[in-house]
Amino acid sequence: MLPDVWQLVKPRWKSLAVGLVLIAINRVAGLVLPYSTKFLVDDVIGQRRLDLLQPIVFAVLGATAIQGTTSFSLTQLLSKAAQRLIADLRRKVQAHVGRLPVSYYDRNKTGTLVSRIMSDVEGIRNLVGTGLVEFAGGLITASVALAVLLRINALLTAVAISMILVFVLLLRKAFKTIRPIFRERGKIYAEVTGRLTESLGGVRVVKGYRAEAREAEVFSSGVQRLLNNVLRSLTGTSWMSLSATLMMGLVSAVVMYMGAREIFSGSLTLGEFVTFTAFLTFLVAPMFQIVSIGTQVTEALAGLERTKEVLNEHIEDDDPNRVVSLDRIRGEVEFRNVTFGYEPGTTVLHNVSFVAKPGTVTALVGPSGSGKSTIIGLVAAFHNPDSGSVLIDGTDLSRVSLPSYRVQLGVVLQETFLFDGTIRENVAFGRPGATEEEILNACRIARADEFAEDFEKGYDTVVGERGVKLSGGQRQRVAIARAVLADPRILILDEATSSLDSESEAAIQKALAYLMQGRTTFVIAHRLSTIRRADQILVIESGRVVEQGTHSSLYAARNRYYDLYTKQHGVESNLFLAPGEGAQADGPEQVAEEAGGDARLELLKAIRPV
What we know:
The chain contains 22 helices and ten strands. By secondary structure, the protein is α/β, with parallel strands linked by helices.
C-alpha cells in the first residue's frame, strides 16, 4: 500500500518535503519550553542565577513565535495540498469510470459508483494533510525526546522504552484487526447510498405504490448495518485508548518510583527529573496520536484500496486490438455467426447472422427478452461477441477505435435520458460545437420548437433531473432533436415515438422518415405497423433469427411474423407503410413536405446536405 500512497503524493513531493521541514522546525521549537525547565529549576532557582532568566524567557518566546508561524504555514501548505490531491483523484476516478465498459455499469449501482468517486477518496487528506502533520510531527518529537531522555538517564529511558514497545506491538495487531472493519464500512456505505439514490430517483414510483414505509424500512436496515459497523470500530478504538491510558499510567508510576530513588541516591537532580518527566510525555504522546489518527489513516487506506480497485478496471479503449481508426463510414453492418452471453454459461444470442446495407432500415421484432436490445448493444459496441464477429464496412468492430466509431452513432431510446440542464444543452449534447442556428433547426425538425418557445426562458429552460420538468412526449422530441443534430451514419431507434401523443407522433414520424434516409437505421418496434416499410425485418426469438424478410414476404409466409402482426391488427400508425397498404411509398422530399412543407425540407438540408 505504501507504493500506492507514494504514487499519489509523488507529483507534490516538493510541497511534502517543505512540509516535513516545517514539521521538524515546529516540533523542535515546541521542545524549547520543557527543556528550559531544567535550567530554570537547577540554575535560576537552585543556584539563584538571575542572569540566565532573561535569556531563557526570550528563548521560550522566540520558540513560541516560530512554532506558531510554522503551524500556520503547515496548514496553508499541506492542508490545501491535500484538498487539491482529493480533487485531482476525484477527476481521475470519474474520468476512468466514464471510460469503463457498459458491463461494469451493469454490475454496479449508480450510488455505489458515486460513493467510490466522492467518498472513498475523501480520507486521502489524512495521508497528506493534518494526519500526516500529527503523525510525522509526533515521530520527530519522539526521536528528539528519546535522545534527551537517554542523555539525562539511560536506565529510566530503557525501562520506559521496553514498556512502550510492548504497547506498539499490541497496537500493530489491533490495527490489522480493525482495518477490515473500515473496508466493510465503505462497502456498506456505498450500498446504502446506492439504494437511497435509486429511491429518490424513483420517488414517483415509490409514491404511486405507497411504498414510502417500505423504502424507509430498507434504508433503516442499511443505516443499522452501518451503525453496527461503526460501533464495532468504536469498540476497537476504545480498547486501544484504554490500553494507551493504562500504559501511560504504568510508565508514569514506574518512572516516579525509580526517579525518586535516583534523586535520593544523588544520580539525578530535581531539574533533570522534571525535564525527564516532561520529555517522557513527548515520547509517549505519539502513541496516543497513533490511536487517535491511526483510525483515520486506516480508514483512508481502506478507501484507497477501493479506489485502486476501480482504477484497475480495464477501460473500453484499453485493448491492444483496437488499432483501426475509422473515417466517415458508409454504414454497412454485418453480423457473422454472432454468439453472445452476459454471463459465462448463459447464452443470449445464438449464431446470429444478417447484413444491414448502407442507408437501409432494419427492424427488430419479437417478444420481450428475445435479444433485440442485445443486438443493438453489439451494434453500439457496448459488448463484444463471445464468438463470431460484427463488421462495420467489412472491418471487425472489435478492432475499431471506439471514439472514431461512436462519433458516427446516434441513439434515440424508449427511456429518454436528459441531463439536468437547459433544452439547448441537451440538444447539443452530441455536438457541443454546433451553431445556434443548427440547434434551432434540429429542434424545429423534431417539433421541439412547438413547446420550447412557449416557455418563459425558451431554449434556456432547465429540464430538471432526467428531464422531469418536461412531459414524456417533450423529452422524446428533445432526444430526437439531439439525434438530428448529431448527424450519425448509423441510427438506432428504440420505440422512438412511444412517448408521443397521436398528433405529435404523426408529425415526428415524418421527420424521422426523412432523418433515416441515407443512414443505416435499426428500429426496435413492438407495434409492428410502424415498421412495414423497413428494408428488412428480423424476427428474434430466444436469441435466434427465426424469420427474415420484408413485411410483404413475411406476412405472406404466414409464420411467426404473421402471428405477431395479426395479434396487433388495428394499430394506428403510418410510418413505413408498404406500397399497396393504404399509403404511397413516398420519397424523402415528399415525406418532409408532408411533415411541414418546403420550409421543413430546407431545415433538414441545413442539418445534413441532401
